[in-house]
Amino acid sequence: MDRCRLILCLFLTLLLARPVLADERAEKAAELEALRERIGALQDELRETGRRRTRAEKKLREIEQAEQSARRELQSIRAKSKQAKQREADLREAERAQQAAIDAQRQALAKQVRTAYMTGNSEWLQMVLSQEDPAQLGRRMTYYGYFSRQRKAAIGLLQDALTDLAATRIEIQNELSRLQRLESDAADQLEEIANTRADRAAVVARMQKSMADRDAEIAGLREQEEELGKLVAALARKLPAMPDFDAEPFAGQTAQLSWPAKGPLLRSFGQSRADGSLKWNGVLLGAAAGSEVRAVYHGRVVFSDWLAGMGLLTIVEHDNGYMSLYGHNQDLLKDVGEWVEPGEVIAHVGDSGGQANAGLYFEIRKNGEPVDPRKWVK
């Protein structure tokens, strides 16, 4: 009785908890949508009040975002292709098992048919016309009936197995056709990426030509730096407060974090830039194109878009005013509002933003002000 009561209590608890869980999910979804709307409004505001984009910058943004879309589609196709190949391998294994079972059933049936042939109908007729004991005759008749039913059942099983094998072979052909379509789609996406890369190279060449004058280059870099600063300041000012989460404060992670990508340090925080007119607010890591970019700590993505000078940029908000920035990516894997864990892949290294070579630009900011990232990594 006590056990029944316990089970009933647990069932009622789960039943009553269902609406609560549904309400929580709805609340989280509403919070996420509100956050994305706020970020969208902020971006619109910055575009209206910010500097006017040059034609080359607009074209570069269009091309690099198109390349990101093509790379995302290619990644999706490759994942589906991997699943299809695994499905085909599983079906091949099932086909081999089914064929082995059919071979065994055929051998067993052939043995039964040979026995029936050797026995023949004459023995059965002689048995019926014989003067044997009725009880013994009944037992022999039962045996022959059992033997006949067994043979009929074996034939039925064999037919079912052959039907299953035919269905498996049809599935294999379907998967092979699907693989061919996926390979064709992948080739199309690779061609699209190659085309965007060629278009990008032409735009970057024009931009470099227009920035050949040192004063123009410095002015452009300063404008891009100011634009990034405005974005970070606006995010810090207008975003809702970070909710509490189960992790140690970012401030306590000094010399505990890992670099977000593997590669040599090409530019250091505070190093002179543009003949000493500017300084680097972050670091530039010489990571290989396409290599993984990982979040350095727990946080919430508050920006995932293209920005002049930074290209495809992800900004992760941590806590107590800390943010980490990851620029020049070839694609962004996380959308605004998503939570990330330390070491989680959030992007892939690229050369977006008009860079001549692939690399990851990385910053850490506290209340909008850049701080030396090397203080935080081990």
Keywords:
single chain, 378 residues, alpha+beta, Glucose Permease (Domain IIA), ten-stranded antiparallel β-sheet, 4 helices, 15% strand
Short précis:
The protein has 378 residues and is an alpha+beta fold. It contains four helices and twelve strands.
Uncertain spans: 121-125
> Beta-sheet strand percentage?
15-25%
Mean pLDDT equals 80
Structural class: alpha+beta
Question: Please, what is the CATH homologous superfamily of the domain at 242-378?
Answer: Glucose Permease (Domain IIA)
Shape: elongated
Helix share bin: 55-70%
Tally of alpha and pi helices? 4
The H/E string reads HHHHEEEEEEEEEEEE
What is the level-2 CATH architecture name of the domain at 242-378? Distorted Sandwich
Distance between the termini: 59 Å
Overall radius of gyration? 35 Å
Query: What do we call the CATH topology of the domain at 242-378?
Result: Glucose Permease (Domain IIA)
